[in-house]
Fold:
Amino acid sequence: METKREYTYRIEPRDVDFMKRATLMSLADYILHTAGEDADRNGFGVRDLNLHNASWVLTRMALETVRMPEEYEQIRITTWVSDVTRVMTTRNFEVLDAKDNIIACAVTNWAMIDISARHILDLHTLPAYNSMTQAFPPPAAMPRRLPAPQCNRETMHTVAYSDLDFNCHTNSVKYIQWALDTLPIGLFGEKRFARTDINFMQETRHGDQLTIASATGDELLFEIRNAAGEPACRMAFRME
Amino acid sequence: METKREYTYRIEPRDVDFMKRATLMSLADYILHTAGEDADRNGFGVRDLNLHNASWVLTRMALETVRMPEEYEQIRITTWVSDVTRVMTTRNFEVLDAKDNIIACAVTNWAMIDISARHILDLHTLPAYNSMTQAFPPPAAMPRRLPAPQCNRETMHTVAYSDLDFNCHTNSVKYIQWALDTLPIGLFGEKRFARTDINFMQETRHGDQLTIASATGDELLFEIRNAAGEPACRMAFRME
Structure:
């Protein structure tokens, strides 16, 4: 019988916030790390793709949490690819605690791009294409397309050395950080991030002067814009 | 025969910069994480101290690097306490690669404080006092006291949610990040951080508006000041 592949982590002091619970950034980071590890071990990781001048690009992410893992808590993250179209794969995750409770889950969409030409490649050309998917359904609703929010608050951020990943672009998790850093600190103790939707729309680079625009309603909405005013990332956080 | 205790880590994608090498922040983080683990395992960790309303405070750090570990490289960090006075312990570190080369080392000073009263406690009162030290010498010169630099450049930073550690103070590693983020990006490819001295002088908290002041000479000098103009942290980076 087919099983979901599983990766084990321990929440370290550097992963937690002032409440000694994992931040949404570190949870997202473990999830994305699991994606990288699992793709690597199954023959379609970034290192394999790089050999053919290709790479993965995360386009959308949905993340739901029941509770945040605590400092020193051991978590297991299961992951599986449920679908591959010509332009996009859907990779899913469940975060389990020691008692097998699902404390968080995520659904992500990825495209494969040509690194030089920056255009999208046909996923059916991947050697691993036929063996990539597993027949488990996604654990939550697909990440949704976010429209431009009507923002009433803006702060600025210039992309710095510490924001960059190995591709020399802003690390995906940084967009979450910039959004959360604008929130009142009391919120983190009062509510949890029940559902987060993220659209990664355009890469940003060192020195880019970004606007972090936000709007408050039933959800906390964010749009990160580059100096040309184009959206680089949109986020919607539903706190409960 | 006595040996140095040893901890093994792998440099993960989130630890590296655009050159796919560990950042100074992640190297410092692994070193400080090792300090925490080793103290915990030997009966004088933060969790033990917390039971007596006490905690460790990092006061100074010196960090020398020969080369930065690469992405996915496995490193071992050895650690030992070489000295305990009434007011300060000296904890040392060597960072080794798979061929047993020492690629970095560090010397740190720690004080024990009463959490409520915020005053320094006598280390001779620690139950583990007699068994804390090992007779190996420090691997580098002691972290030195840094005078106020004559700064000619200033940027601002407001302490945010993501800057806080479990104590609700700014994470020590963030001071390094703020300094490095002001440097020209080309420097990271051209030179290495041969020697870094850091003085942690005062804690900072959420919402604190800090000035990151710097001066360039033989060394890159930084002073992080709080809104009252008092130094919170001074750093000196010698790049070669």
Observations:
- Strands of chain A lie at 5-10, 54-65, 74-84, 89-96, 102-114, 153-158, 193-200, 209-216, 220-225, 231-239.
- Chain A touches chain B through 31 residues (CB under 8 Å).
- Chain A has a mean pLDDT of 94.
- The first helix of chain A runs from residue 24 to 41.
